[in-house]
Amino acid sequence: MATKPRRRPRVTGESWAAVGTSRGAAGGKASLKRSHALGRSWRSPLAWGVFALILAVPAVYFLWAYPTGEGMEVLASQHETLQHKFYPVPCSQDYGNHKQFTGCTPLKCGRAVTDAVITHQEAKRMLRIAEAGLSLGGSDGGASILDLHSGALSMGKKFVNIYGYYGEEMKEILTEEDFQLYRNVKRRIQQEIATTFDLDANSLYLTKPTFFSRMNSSEAKTAHDEYWHPHIDKVTYGSFDYTSLLYLSDYSRDFGGGRFIFIDEKTNSTLEPRLGRLSFFTSGSENLHRVEKVSWGTRYAITISFTCNPDHSIMDPTWL
Ligand SMILES: O=C(O)CCC(=O)C(=O)O
Ligand SMILES: [Fe+2]
């Protein structure tokens, strides 16, 4: 014979324990009283104090145990306009493993950031060049580059040479005025680096690669898309002695994530990109760094770097 299905106990505001242990009407009332008493105790200041302590202990431990946690120091926030900030760091031994060039090989090392060298207008023009050039191709993954010197442009999972691929057509996309702007910007960055590191600007030579970059949150498809790994530019690019980055979009407005991070022993320092912001630093292991993964939007920048070794110098990009 089919038994009448029993009604499930109605779950009220009481705890699961009160429902589970109720045996008969009397037992049910007693446990309900206990659970109401429990409910009241959560409103007492003592209970809140205990609760706060439970949360605070792991938080304090986390901050104490992981002083190298990212975002400990913000070198440059997107919201501020910086005249010139310089952070000295002791030079690494790296330069000793390379040919020395008196008056250029870093003796003074560090990192600098300024919003006062490249104007907003110039940065916007550079952004338009980056957008136009990179729109001709683009990686399937999250990082695309356009190398002005070699002409390499990310395309799918590979690169094409824009100068060969598009030929004369390219002159309409990347004009001689665009190259003039690049050369002008490059010259002022070179001068700024020389002044900051007490060098003669003529002892610094433009080196390769010099490229526009575009980053977004697409999943990486090849190793070239994995821009977020910690690295040392002198190791990655060989010839670099002084790296400069000119940012062409704004952190938190145009994209999320994508902050530049210097990785140090005790604290990491973040630099938030901003249109027209110039950052430069000595390229050795004293300036180990990485870029955070971009979480939304598109981030544009251009890398313009210098070597002390004339054998590694390249000519300014031009159509002429
Ligand atoms: O775009 C950046 O902020 C830095 C990129 C970088 O570290 C590199 O290209 O070596
Ligand atoms: Fe780098």
From TrEMBL:
GO cellular component: membrane
Transmembrane regions listed in the UniProt entry: 46-66
Cofactor(s) demanded: L-ascorbate
UniProt KW Iron keyword: yes
Domain called Fe2OG dioxygenase: residue spans: 208-310
Superkingdom: Eukaryota
PROSITE patterns for the chain: FE2OG_OXY
Keyword Transmembrane helix applies: yes
Pfam families, per the entry: 2OG-FeII_Oxy_3
Keyword vocabulary terms for this entry: Dioxygenase, Iron, Membrane, Metal-binding, Oxidoreductase, Transmembrane, Transmembrane helix
Listed GO MF terms: dioxygenase activity; iron ion binding; L-ascorbic acid binding; oxidoreductase activity, acting on paired donors, with incorporation or reduction of molecular oxygen
Protein name per Swiss-Prot or TrEMBL: Fe2OG dioxygenase domain-containing protein
Provenance organism: Eleutherodactylus coqui
